[in-house]
Amino acid sequence: MVDSGTWRVVVPVKGGGDAKTRLDLPPGPRLALATAMALDCLDAVLRCTAVGRVLCVSDDGAVRAAAGALGARAVPAGGPGLGRAVDAGLAALPPGPTAVLVADLPALRPEDLGAALAEAARHRGPVLVADADGDGSVLVADRDGPPPHRFGTGSAAAHRAAGARELTGPLPGLRRDVDTLDALRRATALGVGPRTAAALGRAALAAPCTP
Fold first, then answer.
1. Which of 21, 50, 54, 129 could make a disulfide contact with 117, Cβ separation 3.0–4.6 Å?
2. Beta strands 137-142; 98-101: pairing state
3. Do 115 and 25 contact (CB within 8 A), yes or no?
4. CB neighbours of 167 closer than 8 A, spacing ≥ 6?
């Protein structure tokens, strides 16, 4: 059984001008919002009692500095591509219970992540948490070491094909990733972190939406 506080979580963050290009916003507010969402996500991970180490992987120096100020370890991705970033993060960690979490989760709560990791600890082999739409993946984890990762289009099916067991709990804040303005408004309805809320206020996008 995995003890509390022993999970290592890799959080890849794209950063830079290419971050969250599907959000229909001017470049400045879009980058500010993407960074705010990632930092709120990292903050929630750091406050999760099941997590002992958080590794932010990004080629954006400002993101790495901000992640380090929060208490995460930060390393460069070493080039473009989510898969490359995840590999860089996994390579920087010692063996042990490991999870990979996407960074665009502004409504993440430590208790949602803790519940998912507690369930993952009860299963041998990799587990998957799909996004709210069921097509993408927000978390893959394995209590015995680095999980297989297949992030990208149709990643939930790809992770299942790679042997990941899908977790079925509601976990609303964990499942609500943000790629579009509609998804952003749905996350806002759940309640987002303070950095995201501030960025939304500056961009005048915090209109209520029923999830």
1. 50
2. antiparallel
3. no
4. 116, 119, 120, 127, 128, 129
Residue 80 DSSP label = S
Burial 97-120, CB ≥16 within 10 A → b, else e: bbbbbbbbbbbbbbbbbbbbbebb
Q: Which helix (H) or strand (E) holds 185?
A: helix 181-190
| Strand order from edge to edge, sheet including 51-57 | 73-75, 51-57, 7-12, 98-101, 137-142, 127-130, 165-166
What does each C-alpha distance from 90 to 17, 24, 29, 94 come to in angstroms?
Answer: 25, 32, 31, 8
Q: What is the pLDDT along the chain (211 residues), one digit of tens a residue?
A: 565 569 999 999 998 888 898 898 889 999 999 999 999 999 999 999 999 999 999 999 999 999 999 999 999 999 889 999 999 999 999 889 999 999 999 999 999 999 999 999 999 999 999 999 999 999 999 999 999 999 988 999 999 999 999 999 899 999 999 999 999 999 999 999 999 999 998 776 434 444 4
In 3-state terms, what secondary structure has residue 177?
A: coil
**Among the listed residues 192, 41, 179, 199, the one whose alpha carbon sits nearest the alpha carbon of residue 107:** 192
pTM over 0.90: yes
3-state SS class at 8: strand
Return the structure tokens found at 48: 């999760």
**C-alpha dist (Å) from residue 188 to 30, 35, 121, 154:** 16, 16, 30, 25
